[in-house]
Amino acid sequence: MSITAKELAKRLKLSEAAVSMALNNKSGVSTATRRRVLEAAEQAGYDFTKLKEAASESRPEHGAISFIIYRKHGAIVTDTPFFNQLTEGISLSCRQARYQLNISYFHGDEDSRQQLKEMPYCNGIILLATEMHYEDFKLFDSLRIPIVVLDTYFEGLKYDCVLINNFQGAYQATSYLIQKTKKQPGYLRSSYQIGNFGERADGFYKALRTYGMSASKSSVLSLTPSMEGAYEDMIQLLRAGEEPSPCYFADNDLIAAGAIRAFREQGFRVPEDISIIGFDNMPLCNYIDPPLTTVNVPKQYMAQTAVERLIQRIHSREHFPVKIEIGTSIVPRKSVLC
Fold it and tell me: Residue 310 pLDDT more than 50?
């Protein structure tokens, strides 16, 4: 007589839910636990027939993909619409391709190797690496499954990378400011430096050179990359006597929104006195006063591209690492003087 899942759980001293997830190959249990359950089930004569019949309609037929969200300090990768939209795009693309999606959060200040061991089985990984440094990737070098890195790039990485064309976006934004205001732009730069912001800085300075402007004449203010943090930082600078530039490019929309609030509280008009352009095109751009001109990042397409590239890798015997940059565009609103 075949053993039941309930009896198997009691024998292994596991919860019935954990045994069920392991038998059905669902996320929520580690690879080691899944292996232990399957081996015990086989030895005890568990009847897998009905399980396979029930799973044939509901389970993705192609396998599983893990989406790892890596947080090193949490200053950039937070619960914002930008990263939520990336996650939603990956989830939708996995469903359409009939892959199960497992989402894991890795924290750089914890035992990452243990986190990796506890991950559920998967055929490939999409790694959100926005906050990662080059040395952090060593953790994944021993894995023998395909990995696609999302939202960052480093020379020397052996993985495929899908990211925003940050240089292009910042160049477009700064050029737009100069064309509209005919003034030397300042730079509201993130106080937390990541690869994306470094590339945006390069785009900003390239635009200055293109228009014959000296980089030394642009005021660069370092602000926390959150709305409240940028507001507090800018208020302190203004109260200390900082003379605002006539226009600014901001590393992201949150910095721009916080700065706008500070400027207005100190009596400056936006865009009449100060024009500002952001980056990311987050939903808040439509709701702040004035609505924020920004750089649009096609987040859903970026997520879809990462999933498609990973699936190609899963089914390919050869691998030549590629870097895929997603293009950007300007979304004009009312924070830039026209």
Answer: yes
Element containing residue 310 per DSSP (H, E) = helix 299-314
pLDDT at 259 over 60: yes
C-alpha to C-alpha distance for 248 and 184, rounded to whole angstroms: 9
Does 316 lie in the same domain as 210? no
Please list, residue by residue across 169-199, b when 16 or more beta carbons sit within 10 angstroms of its beta carbon and e when fewer do: bbbbbbbbbbebbeebbbbbbbbbebbbbeb
The pLDDT assigned to 110 comes to 66
Residue 271: cis peptide before it, omega within 30 degrees of 0: yes
Closest CA to 19 of 8, 11, 35: 8
DSSP summary character for residue 293 = B
Q: Phi then psi for 15, rounded to 5 degrees?
A: -70, 155
pLDDT above 90: percentage of residues in the chain: 67
d(CA 330, CA 277): 9
Residues 170 and 151 in one domain: no
- CA nearest to 151, candidates 72, 95, 224, 220: 72
The pLDDT of residue 25 is: 67
Q: Mean pLDDT, the chain, as a whole number? A: 89
What is the residue range of 160's domain? 64-165+299-329
Alpha-carbon torsion (201, 258, 334, 218), positive or negative: negative
